[in-house]
Amino acid sequence: MKQVIALFALISFLFITVPAAVPDTPADPSKAIRVTPKAPVFTTKERHDELKRRRDKVAAKMADNSILILISAEPKIYTNDVDYHYRQENNLFYLTAIGQNGANLVLTKNGGSVGEYLFLPKRNPQFETWNGRMLSNEEATGISGISNVIDSANWKDFIAALKEKKEFSFENASLTGPSAPASVYLLTGEDEREYGREQALAEELSGYKVENSEPIFADLRLVKSPYELKLLQHAIDITTEALGRSMGVAGISDWEYEVQAEVEYTFRRRNADFWGYPSIVGCGENATTLHYVESQGRVKKGELLLMDVGAEYQHYTADITRTFPVNGKFTKEQADIYQIVYDAQEAAASTMKPGSTVGQASRAAANTIEDGLVKLGLVTSKGATYDFEFNGQTMKRPQYTLWYMHGWGHWIGMNVHDVGGYGTFAEGMVITNEPGIYIREDALDYLPDTPANAEMKKAIKASFEKYASIGIRIEDDMLVTRNGVEWMSKALPRSIEDVEAFMASASAEMRGRR
Asked: What distance in Å separates the CA atoms of residue 296 and residue 12, rounded to the nearest whole number?
């Protein structure tokens, strides 16, 4: 019998109504590893005001004589009768804080009047026996602040009435709005995997102007409120402790998965929802693979360990990377590369403030990396290029992109790669600052055999052999403030000196805890 694991919906409910578990003792400032501070706690009024503010902003962007529909995320099958951890659709959660499967939201706007209607499955004792307690209508109102709660058994009738442009009426509830709205807002982006039902419904709504509601949410979610920042900071704080503990056990671990276990143990111990993305824990050559998630390699003294991890707390995810020497001390070659990446982070951060652009920060990081690689002999000269093939044609790219091939940063929030366009910074935006350098052993093996490439390979051969298999990324979560930028993940060491000092202290602390 296939079971939808509704227990996770109950957990989401508890996240909102009960303070999260916290450490038994406060953080000890004499300790290197920073224990996660207490989780933020909000009053019912604070939560209701925040959610109402969001819904009002969405309604303000809707055309008059329109309706907006948000559909609960579908459970995802892991295998046979086992589901993945259930996670509510972000925008529905953003407006309701309801994590339960089967909840749908309808907003109507008619003559300037806005209606809010939450469809919710009726409690089912038999279902609850197997899967955990469901929300009552009163509890859903208590969480969301939405007073109009309708049994989701009426959902099909509502959709049928919408298609047929009939009045919406339900037993023991009323839904007032345009009987035949001119516009219907749905999440109809390009991703069929997440929004396939919305796309199918859009095709069935003949005679309507169907609007994609994604741009509305992208604009609103791009700038975080103080309420959101408290949740995001807590996710970052959990991740900070997880990385600190992992740096402390790396020297006494044999395998990457042992270090990863310390991360995910800390996530659960501090009541994170889950991880925001699969943990990346790569030692030595594995650190040169950007999305290495196997964690099956050896942890070897003398090599670097790259860890890119992020806890998710109440739908907000951190994203932090640290690269550090397993034995606690950087070699000269490792330090050479690390310092360039560190300097690139600093250069990017120095440009960030309201009114500056993502492009400026990105270019500052890239220019710093290119200059550093020229000095190390891994790039022949400033502005030098190499040949690559694309669609049967030979084209040119900057040489430094052989070693720094990804973008500088991305928004974070309810997605690890959150929504919103990459233009001008404004106060309240949160973005990652994550330059990196990856000297893959086979990076030069698959380049086109051209005279320019042969000349480049010859020129950088000695340096390439010197730095081969070193992969370094440093990633921090940056909040744009009124006058500049705040490093939200500043509690974790970054500089070479601070990392080495932290490794010594954290290793001693973890030996006493294991």
From this structure: 32
> Distance from first CA to last CA of the chain, Å, rounded?
41
The token pair that represents 403 in the structure block:
């070693």
Strand partners, 306: 282, 323
Name 56's bridge partners.
Answer: none
| Phi, psi (deg, nearest 5) at residue 378 | -90, -10
CA distance 97 to 103: 11
Helix-, strand-, coil-residue percentages of the chain, each rounded to 5: 40, 20, 40
State if pTM tops 0.90.
yes
- pLDDT tens, position by position, 309-320: 999 999 999 999
Give percent of the chain with pLDDT exceeding 70.
92
Q: Is 286 helix (H, G, I), strand (E, B) or coil?
A: helix
pLDDT of residue 103: 98
Average pLDDT, integer, range 192-197: 89
Residue 174 pLDDT class (50, 70, 90 cuts):
low
- DSSP class of residue 421 equals -
Specify the pLDDT at position 313.
Answer: 98
Name which of 353, 211, 338, 347 is nearest 287 in CA terms.
Answer: 338
Task: Give mean pLDDT, residues 401-421.
Answer: 97
- Enter the tokens of residue 387: 């040949």
- Residue 107 near residue 144, CB atoms below 8 Å: no
Mean pLDDT of the chain: 92
Which helix H or strand E contains 389, and what residues bound it? Answer: strand 385-390
Supply the DSSP symbol for 357.
Answer: B
Q: Specify which residues 46 forms β-bridges with.
A: none
**Residue 119 falls in which region: left (phi positive, over 0), alpha (psi -120 to 50) or beta:** beta
Which residue in this structure is represented by tokens 């974790």?
492
Which residue carries 């900070």 as its tokens? 240
Token readout for 63 is: 């055309």
Which one-letter amino acid corresponds to residue 274?
F
Cβ distance 468 to 320 under 8 Å?
no
**Residue 281: closest CA among 300, 264, 303, 257:** 257
Q: How far is CA 358 from the centre of its chain?
A: 18
Runs of H (alpha helix) within 121-255: 125-131, 137-144, 155-164, 192-204, 214-222, 226-249
Runs of H (alpha helix) within 304-377: 332-351, 358-376
